[in-house]
Design brief:
This protein has about 210 residues and is of the alpha/beta class. Helix content is about 40%, strand content about 25%. It has one domain: P-loop containing nucleotide triphosphate hydrolases (Rossmann fold, 3-Layer(aba) Sandwich), CATH 3.40.50.300. A hairpin with a 5-residue loop joins strand 1 and strand 2. The longest helix has 15 residues. The structure holds guanosine-5'-monophosphate (5GP). The site of guanosine-5'-monophosphate has 13 residues, from strand 7, strand 8 and strand 9.
Length: about 210
Amino acid sequence: MGLIYQKPGGDTFELKSGLLPGKMAEGKLIIFSAPSGSGKTTLVKHLLKHIPELSFSVSCTTRDKRKNEIDGKDYYFLTVDEFKQKIKNQEFIEYEEVYGGRYYGTLHTEIDRLWNAGKHVIFDIDVKGGLNLKKQFKERALAVFVSPPSLTELEKRLRERCTESEETLKMRLDKADKELSYAKDFDVVLVNENLEKAEIKAEKLVKSFLNLQ
Ligand code: 5GP
């Protein structure tokens, strides 16, 4: 039986059956995408802690390092010139200019590195990047859209996080508005209204896809 998840509008739907179960021997991709502030990073951290078969895909970015972030663990922090050189060398499997002038991208070598280590790879990535990976890897990837209960709640969470200026907060909210319209293109929509419940659902979902239950 498939797993039932709630769509943003309140409907429920079943995980597409072709995705279950996965082939054990093959490295898989678990893609978590969401508007910034929806809680996807917290969910991804929870999954990494509870599912040892997973490893995090460390992206490259040109944005400034935040307090507590570690280069090579949270991101590979690059200058715009370094990033553009990697684009030129076709080192990215996908990349986006996520916010004006700030680039984010996934290196081919990052996925290979983790698959070679016998891990399934989990991504915390923006909506366009997530759909791009899903298109390339198809049944080998599970694409999960984490939705906030509402845009008002999203704004509240972003303000509480205190990582944004008024200007970048507005950019993130404008982008979130557009991103919500892509939810239907993902394999699963997970509404993060209550973090604890969302963590349990996410764990069940990923374990089913990886055939770990
Ligand atoms: P933040 O600046 O809050 O760490 O991330 C901003 C957005 O960029 C988030 O939605 C995050 O998931 C996304 N992101 C992180 N890494 C990548 C990546 O490699 N590719 C793409 N397309 N987006 C990414």
